[in-house]
Amino acid sequence: MALSRIHWPFLAGLGLLAVAACGRGGARVTETATPYLRCLALDPPKARQAQVGPAKLSLEERRLTIEGLEPPLRLAAFSGPGFGGPPAAAQLEALKAAEAQLILVLGGLGDEQTTADATAAALATLGPPVLVVAGGRDQPERIERAIDSVAGGGERIIDATALRSIDIGSDTLIPVAGASEGRYALGPKHCGHGLDDLKDIAGELGAGGLGRRWLIAWHAPGQSGPRGVARTEAGLDLGSADLAELGRRVGAAGGLFAWPAVQAVRPTADGGGRRVGVDVPAPDLRLVVPRLSGVALERDDGSQVLPGFALLRLDHKGLRLVSVVGQ
């Protein structure tokens, strides 16, 4: 089916989903092949303000505002260890040396509570604010306990799973937790999102204004171009059509993602029309980030992406991949 504005109403008319209330204000989909927790429907975090280095964080309802970061913005982005172990000392030193102003963790904080706790404790030592968006391997309660287990963790580490927007100057990051319809959720308490959740985001944010918007989602959106961020070398698009529609509706052409891992560190631009080289800015750059620790990620062509992180720069020209630390 072509990706168009009739896509959402068509899916909504199928009537396949039944939803039941389930903890923390979320909902569990009960009549799908893979039950999951609708993490975008979780209650918003408590309003608060914090000062983390030069960054002033203000959290209210589902909106986080970050002030005090001098442009151009340096971002370190990766998925967490998932089934692997927490980051080693060498990986933490590399993150410190990168001097990122903001750290993005796109899912995989840890499959076990002990791993998630250790990962959160390690990330809290790095200095800059850390934003965590839950993925299909994550349980919201596990993330919450991991952050609470760190002294001052609630100030340095923000669970962005239930947020709608993260405003940094004239740029807005739009977090989307889990995969469409929970396709990759490990169980009924793990994160996914439904069509209604994405409609809620689009309705709340509208079509956008003068600033730029970027998706930061665990599941990458589909793209029509031959070099789409989630399109394999064989031409199979593993991205989400619903997320692609969300990006169009809210004016978010670019973004950072964690799945599918087989497309890690293959930046694309022009709607998936071309690959983008290192240190080349694009107003719609899209990238699947590497995993910080654990085993190497294997791409669909047999090549591997070693554990590490993507260092990116956000400036007036757009988003660019500066380097992949760990390659």
Strand-residue proportion? 25-35%
H/E series: HEEEEEEEHEHEHHEEEEEHEHEEEEEEEE
Mean pLDDT: 89
**Total tally of structural domains:** 1
CATH superfamily: Metallo-dependent phosphatases
What's the total count of β strands?
Answer: 23
CATH class: Alpha Beta
Which fold name corresponds to the CATH topology? Purple Acid Phosphatase, chain A, domain 2
Largest sheet: 8 strands, mixed
Alpha-carbon distance between the two ends: 38 Å
User: What does the overall shape look like?
Assistant: globular
Instruction: Record the strand order, biggest sheet.
Output: 4-5-6-11-12-15-16-19
Ranges where pLDDT stays below 50 over 5 or more residues in a row are 1-7, 9-23
Q: Any idea what the radius of gyration is?
A: 18 Å
What is the number of helices?
Answer: 7
Structural class label: alpha/beta
The CATH architecture category equals 4-Layer Sandwich
